[in-house]
Specification:
Keywords: Acyltransferase, Amino-acid biosynthesis, Arginine biosynthesis, Autocatalytic cleavage, Cytoplasm, Multifunctional enzyme, Transferase
EC number: 2.3.1.35, 2.3.1.1
Protein name: Arginine biosynthesis bifunctional protein ArgJ
Subunit structure: Heterotetramer of two alpha and two beta chains.
CATH class of the largest domain: Alpha Beta
Number of strands: 15
Mean pLDDT: 95
Order of helices and strands: EEEHEHEHHEEEHEHEHHHEEEEEH
Enzyme class: transferase
């Protein structure tokens, strides 16, 4: 029920020796066609990892035969030699598949600033190629791309006519992307051209993965790759495919959210009554990144004043005395002042919903975040040492 659920795909996840733990750390996903149509979205961080720069070039052609992914090293901020390592990795995959490096995407995740041990990675490609399968390969690949993730993250949907969409993702920290969240590979056996895949992917990620904002930190490596084999022979309507793809991306977003580093609360910030979608997202992100509020939610304190304070830092259209805030269904703030008794708010459940009504228009958006915990600080306090 992962990337090998659609027809035409094989995958593998192996131990290349990149992780000190000795766990799986290299994944390979191969599209056997007949189509190789592909699309992707990448981080908007101006400091981009070498594999992002390489894969951006590959995706300009709209075709991808395979993607190789490694954990245990981000290959970011590694200069020209790091880019050469990415190129060598693509060439290695192309060699074992007897194909072109220009159609091999590369993804990496892990510590920034250190080169990958190519003497381990390249033999790992050979090992992965030898273990490619439609059976357990998808689950092994999903396991291999984990870093601080506690569980593998996969998703699957079947569309009208029998075509399928499968996916895997990783991400537990640095979840504040633009267009993507950490590493995600989506496969489908639907028969759609690259331009249709691109439109569908941007629409789907725009309302799901792009609105996951766990810790306000944008990665250098974020990549969401969509590959279509066309093996089902089904040509779905673009809007139908987009809706199904959005379901898959939404499912992955939820999995990433609940597995975020150190999190004890999964927080949905619903902004309604906005003058525009942009205003709604801007307000949602401001609230999601407010550390005082995130601490309050962790301490199960319904401190709605921190919500209003975050709203007030944005350029969204609103009047302060028309703002309303509900926490888990209790309207603790009405018309910019105290509303129902905050003592009525139950913050014991893991899921928390904060609703903000800007009273300025018909638009809405939801942004997802987590609380700020001592465990998160501990997880990230000595990550490189």
């Amino acid at each position: 029920m992962s990337v090998t659920a659609p027809l035409g795909f094989r995958a593998a996840g192996v131990v290349a020796g990149l992780k000190p733990s000795g766990n799986r750390d290299l994944a390979l996903v191969v599209n056997d066609g007949p189509s190789r149509a592909a699309a992707a979205v990448f981080t908007r961080n101006r400091v981009k990892a070498a594999p992002v720069l390489w894969s951006e070039q590959v995706l300009r052609g709209g075709r991808v035969r395979a993607v190789v992914l490694n954990a245990g090293g981000a290959n970011a901020c590694t200069g020209a030699r790091g880019f050469q390592d990415t190129h060598a990795t693509a060439e290695k995959v192309a060699g074992v598949l007897d194909d072109s490096a220009g159609e091999i995407a590369v993804c990496s995740t892990g510590l920034i600033g250190e080169r990958l041990p190519m003497d381990l990675l390249l033999p790992g490609v050979d090992k992965a190629a030898a273990e490619l399968s439609r059976g357990d390969g998808g689950l092994a690949a999903a396991d291999a791309i984990r870093t601080t993730d506690t569980v593998a993250k996969i998703s699957f949907r079947q569309g009208a006519g029998g075509y399928r969409i499968g996916a895997m993702a990783k991400g537990a920290g640095m979840l504040a992307p633009s267009l993507a969240t950490m590493l995600c590979v989506v496969t489908t056996d639907a028969d759609l051209p690259a331009d249709a895949l691109d439109r569908a992917l941007r629409t789907a990620t725009g309302v799901t993965l792009d609105r996951l904002d766990s810790d306000g930190c944008m990665s250098t490596n974020d990549t969401v790759l969509l590959m279509a084999s066309g093996a089902s022979g089904v040509v779905p309507a673009e809007d139908e495919f987009t809706a199904l793809l959005t379901e898959v991306c939404g499912d992955l977003t939820r999995q990433l959210l609940v597995d975020a580093e150190g999190a004890s609360k999964a927080i949905a910030i619903e902004v309604v009554g906005a003058a525009s979608d942009t205003d709604a997202v801007t307000v949602g992100r401001s609230i999601a990144r407010n550390n005082l509020l995130k601490c309050a939610i962790h301490g199960e304190d319904p401190n709605w004043g921190r919500v209003l304070s975050a709203v007030g830092t944005t350029d969204a259209v609103f009047e302060p005395d028309e703002l309303n805030v509900a926490i888990n269904g209790v309207w603790v703030c009405r018309n910019g002042a105290s509303g129902d008794d905050r003592a009525k708010v139950d913050l014991r459940p893991r899921d928390v919903t904060i609703t903000v009504d800007l009273s300025a228009g018909p638009h809405s958006a939801t942004v997802w975040t987590t609380d700020l915990t001592a465990d998160y600080v501990h997880e990230n306090s000595a990550y490189s040492t």
